[in-house]
Every structure is written in structure tokens, then in C-alpha cells.
Amino acid sequence: MMKRITSLVLSLAVLLACAVFAQAESIDSDSYLGKSTVFTFTADTGVNSPLVTDYAQIPPLQYIMNKEWDPAGNGNTRKVEMKVITPPSGNERDYLTNILSTGDYTDLMSLQQVGTTALEMYENGQALDITDYVMQYMPNYRAYFDRHPTLKGRETCLVNGEPRYLCLYGLTEKRIPAWGGMVYRRDWIVKYGKNPVTGEGFTGSWSEDGTNWTDDVVFPSGNPDPMTISDWEWMMDIFQTALNELGIDDGYALSISANGMIGVNDFESTFGDVGTWYINPQNGEASFGTTSDNYRAYLDCLRTWYEKGWINPYFYEFSNDMFFMVDAGSVYSGKVGAWYGMDNQLGNAMDFSGGDESNPLNGIVVFGAPNPINDMYGDESMQGNTPFFFYASGLIGGQVVVTDKAKDKDLPALFTFLDYFFSPEGSIIATYGLDAEQTKELEAINPDSYRICQESGLGNGAYTIVDGKYRRDDLYFTSEDASGTAVPLRFIRLEDTSNMLYEYPEFYQHTLDLWGMYPVDALIGNEILAQLTPEESSIKAGLDAEYSTYMAQAIPEFITGERDIRSDADWEAFCNAVNAFKPEEYTNALNRILGK
Amino acid sequence: MSGYIAKTANRTGTGGDTWKKDFRKNGILYLLFLPLAVYFIIFNYIPMAGIVMAFENFKIGKGIFGSEWVGLANFQRMFSGTAFLPALRNTVCMAVMSLLLGFLPPIILALLFSECRLKKFKRVTQLMTYMPYFVSSVVVCALVTEFFNRDGAITALLSGLGLPQQNWLANTDIPVFWLIYVFMGIWINFGYGSIIYTTAISKVNGEMKEAAALDGANRFKTIWYITLPSIKPLCIMQLTMAIGTMFMVGFDRVLLLYMPKTYAVSDVLYTYTYRMAFGSKIDYGLSTASGLFQSVIGMLLLVVSNKLSRKLANYSLF
Fold first, then answer.
1. Is B52 within a domain?
2. What percentage of chain A carries pLDDT values higher than 90?
């Protein structure tokens, strides 16, 4: 019975989708023959390699641009040339805004750093409705959303109640490992900690080849990693001991951002709610958790930690630091026990002591930790929840609009060309670059691109296939010339790392696994924000301005004790102030987009 | 502007000449003024058309003429926000303090320079006092941050006087941030500001000073009765201009020194506008409304101070 109902619902959904897109008009691509196939594209940032001055010069793009496209499949082929404009480094946002406001924009525009949405650009007459072209010439792009039903519907915007394609998204087949998360001094646990059961000290050491760290650390929860809030409290007590033993007066156990967050709201979900807007994984609805009791429990926890002297006493002064580089001076001086860090800090990568035992960085071993599970603060409903918020790359990434500047050009050829980046063959090139054979082909097709491959060190291809897995050339990880020119990073494409061969050291892979152990679908991605109407966009802008200013002051005050988180009067005043910003208006807008 | 020049020319001896005659007579001067006029027209007058954005729900794609007219909605939004009034209060307080505390130091310094007999000492001192003016705000603010840091030099000095050791820039008590800002402004400007007074003092008739000395006036009395009255018009003109621009409290310096914790006491209209306008979405309407508000207040202040100047010192800019 259940199966029948499910089949019925799915059939109806398919019929509905067909009905909606039935209006898509069939395009005669041959009528576009003779129109320009040279398109201009504004990328969001430049290339990190001095080998190329123009982004379009990078070998995989040159290789693909050399292909012939046949939109109608009748032999009327043509090439597509993409001229890429990159904004000046450091002024990307200003540049993109300027060209939009002066009307001097390009055929294709990345919206990554522009303070507007695809829907708004369409309503302003700047972005084209590309539905008909996507339906007819981009089967690979559409197939992605069929493979990922949870994302189905997010690829379009509602125009007069109808879903329309107004932009294209950069897509990822499989979530790529996080580059950052909570990290801590594992060496301090080994050196200054005691087994919570036996009371004996810990031991730990690097393997003989220096690639792997092993120890016998056990946290109070019985795990080898800090999995709960009580594990964290036990750990920070050890960090405090370490700081005392080492005589580091200006160090501290835990670093948090100036606005009172750890990461980008990451830590809060462990208490059951998040102090911002997010997609509730339980019902798929947009939620706003700042005034919830769960968020209050989070603040109570941080207030307790601050009172115990574990948190940087002057955390609120580091407002200019990025969330992954807060008080980097202290972190890189070996004065901090735990912080939101990056993958390049893991293991002994931060040991710059040169063997000097008096240097606090001597023997440093950095491990990653997952968001802990709350087992201490708030009532039962706030404890034991699975964390659901973690800052990580989503499946949908960058977005590009096709502007009215391109309306008189050969659009069927353009969309056929763009669809190739989402095809099985094209996505391999878009993910890994060119293989040895394709690189060799370039020698005849485009000697300049071949020279760039040679100079970047990828003359024999950017990857090899080992037992059916794709193995990137080592240079990709060590040379900016190689990584900057191997892959069309700034182009919309399907990045498919499903079959990528990862060869990370065990401790490194372990951290990536910990960072990725809980779902991360709660983040509100660009594909949702792109669908905000101008009015909803204004609501968001107002909140960004006033609400974030208020929060940036109020939250640190709760942590430092200037406001009393345990006082109902203070909490009520805070909630009233937050509610005065009418956060529900934005929540409603998000739920409209999510179809809730 | 050219009308002003013509009127000035009339006052200075070409009375009765028509504009055309004057143009023929002073053609070179007009030619010299031309680039300046073009500059002002292009960069100061034409952009004024953008003021209309303050009354619109401005959209880039629709432009000034196509965007929706919303009347005073942007101003209502600005005044009803929680951050605007504190920013306005901070701006006014810092402006008034800067004016009161910052107006006299350049004059005093210029008087001291004019009385200094040791030429080498005078030159070195002048150089040292001018220098901060020519250093980038970023560097100056970095120095100030260091000085007032928890273990900074000035903090150590203040601790020696019995005040608590703390990062003074993170202090939210009134008027700590205001004082830091004002004294930083004095430090940056008083040397450079003294140049114009030093020049004016050097033009004071020496014979008057000699006569006063023969009559038994000491240095202080010479300054009080000869020098200061001689430079009084300049002082009043400078004061007038300072009042007119007092609302333009340094955006870059505040932006570099403040932090969310101190927004309540450090946010000024410029930083408020910046933060409100350049969030995740650029809000041209609100930023133009805020800018227009500042300009109107500045203009009113200039008109009032000019009238006062005319009344008190018989001297005015217009």
C-alpha cells in the first residue's frame, strides 16, 4: 500500500514538473547559426598562478573550447570561445557591483561576490530566463538534480508562481572534505592528562617514518576523541594545567570569535538550536534559533567556561580576525589549547621550534574534533542531540547568470558548451584537469596551453588512474602553478570526487572523518538566497545590518557577564530586542522558497 | 563660483567693470581657475544628482529614473533603527570635543614656534609635529592600538597614575573612546594645522612688536595685544570651517579603532552608514540618506558659523 502511495505521489510530482516545463518552447538552434559564439564571462576571482594572465588560458578550458558543438545534432557544428574577465584582487565586490551598476557587465556573470540575486537581476532586466535553453540543451545539468532529490526544486526560481531557470550553479557530486573545524593540542593531553579511569598518564609518539601519530588517550566518555561537552571540559582543564606548568600567563584553553561564536555557529547545534537562520533537519523548514532556550543553554555553557578562565578573556577584541584565524598570534605561539583551525595545521605542521624544547611549539600535535554532544547544560531536551550545523562546502556552490548582453548571440551553442562541464566526461576534466593523452593533444591544438602544462609541471597530465581511482599529481597539492592551472576552478562545473584516491596520513584522515561525521545540510546556501525576491532581499539586508550589529554586542556581553545569561529579566530583554527586528519575516521568506 | 570671483574682483578695485570686461582683463586668472572649476563640477556638483537615491528604493538595474520613489522611507528606516541614534550622539560628542580641544593647540604651537630662537630645535620640532599628518591612517591607528593595548606605553603610564591596566580601546565607558579619538586627532593635525598660523604670524608687522617692546610690553603682552589680534580673522575663518566640517568625524580612524563591543560608544555616522550599506547587500537608499543627512547638518552648521563669524569678527566666507 505504502509503495503504491509513494509511486502515486512520485508520478504526480513528475506530471506536475512536466506540466510546468511543458511551456518550454522548442528552440531551432540552426536559426542561431552565424551569430557570435564568443562570450564574455566575469569570474569572481583570478587565477593563483603567474603562468597565466587570463583565466581562459588555463589548459582545460582551452582544451574544451577547441571542441565543436552541435546543439541540434544535425552536423551544424561550431566552437564556443569564452573570454574571461577577472576582477582586481581585493576589490572583487566593488568591481562586480560597478560593472552591474554602469551596465558594463558581461554575457555571463558570477554572482559569488555580488550583492544581488539572480531573481533580482531578472526582474531588473539584466538576467535572462534560460529555462528553454536549459531544458533543451542541458540534460546533464538537469540530471544532477534527478540524482539528488533533496536538492530538486532549488535549481529554479519562482517567477509569477512558475519555477524558472534564472541561473546555473556549480555542483558537487559528493561533499568534499572540510578544510577546517575544531582542533586541539593532542600533545598536551598526552603530556599533562591522566586516564579518567585508571588515573595513569598517557603515552604517544610518531611512527618511525614520521607520518602517523599514535597514543592511548581516552576521554571521560570512553572515546579516543572528545565527543561530548564533558569531554571538552575535562580537556580544557588539562589545557589550563599545561599552561600553568609551562608558565604561559597570556595563554588560554579555548579561542572563540569576537562575536561569541565557535566556528560559524558550529558549536551551537549541539545544544539543539542555532543562533541564526538554518534549515531544520527534522522537518526541512527554515528556523531561527536565537531566542530559543537551547541557544540560551549554549550561552550558559560559554559563560561557565569564561568564568573558569578557559576562554580567551579578551576574545571580543579580535573582531577583525577571520573565524578560522582568531588570535593567530597566540595560536602560532603555542599558547592556545583549542581553536577553530584548518587542515594545514594538523599533526606536527605547526612545530616551528627547530628542536628547541623551551619553545611552546616544540612537539606540538594538533588533532581535529567533531562538534561535541551536549551532556551537561540545559534540560533533557537540550542534551544528547546530534549536532547538525557545520561550516563546510555544500553540494551547490557558485552561481552564474546569463545576462541580456548575450541575448543576440548563439545561445544554443553556449548552453551545449556549458552542459559539457556537467557531463561524465566533462566533469572529469573539470574536476581533475587533463590526463596525459589530452595534454599531448594540446601540443598540436594549442602550443601555448601545452607550454603552460609543461611549465606547471603537469606536462604528463594532472592525474593518473590507479585501480579505478583518480590520483591527482602530487604537484597539485604543493605548487600553486599546478593547482592554479590544472582545473577550471572558477567556472561552473560538476566537481565529482566520488572516485578520488585520497592518500592522507591516518591522523589527517581521522580528523576529516570527525569533521564530517555529522550531517551539514542545515546551512542556507546560495541556491536558496538566489530565490529571494527584491522585497525579501531588502528584509535580509536590513537584518544583516541592524540585527548583526546588535548580536555582535549582546552575545559577547552574555559571555563576559555584562549581561546575566542566568537572569530571566536579562534574557527576556534580549529576546524582546531580537524579536523587534522581526526575524520571522526572513524566516517566512526562506520557508516560501523551501516550499514550507 | 565665477560670480563670487567677479564680486571679489569688484571689491578689490575693478569696481564698475562688467563681467565680460573683467573676463577680458583677468583672462589668465580665469584660465587658471578653469581646471579647478571643472574638477568641482565633475566630482562635486554632478554627483549631487545622486541625492535622489535617498528617496528611492534604488535598484542598480533600474537606475535613478526607473527606481521606485519611496519618499522619506529611507530616513524613517534610518531613524527607527537601534544603531543610528547612538552613532549620531557619538558623532556630535566627538565633533564638539574635537573642536573644543583641537582648535587651540595649533595656534599655541604656532605662537611657540614664532617665539623660538633656536632655529635647529625649531626645525626638528616642526618636523616631528608635522610628521603624523603625513603618515597613513592605518599606521597611525596601529600605533594608537599599540599604545593603548593592555601592555602599551600609554596604558603603562596610566597604570602608573593608578588607573586599571586594560585595553583602553575596548573600554565602553563614556568618554574613554571619545577622548582617545580626539587626542589622536590633535596628535595628527596640530603640527600641520600650525603651518598656516605660523605663516600668518610671520606676516605680522614687526614694527608694531618693536613699538610695543619700547613701550615696555613683555613677550606675553606682545602676543596678546599684537600677534593674536593680527591673526584673529584667520582664527575665526579656521573656526568657521572647522564648525562646518565638524560632522565629518574620521571614518577611517574610527573604523580602524572600533570593535563590536564598543559600537555603542564608538560608532559614528560614517561607520554606521558603511556598516548598514555594505552588508551582504548594498543598500544605496540608506547610505545616500545617511550621507545626505550629514551633508545637510554640515551645511547648516557652516551657514550658522559663517553668520556668527560675520557678526563677531566682521569677516565671513560668503
1. no
2. 65
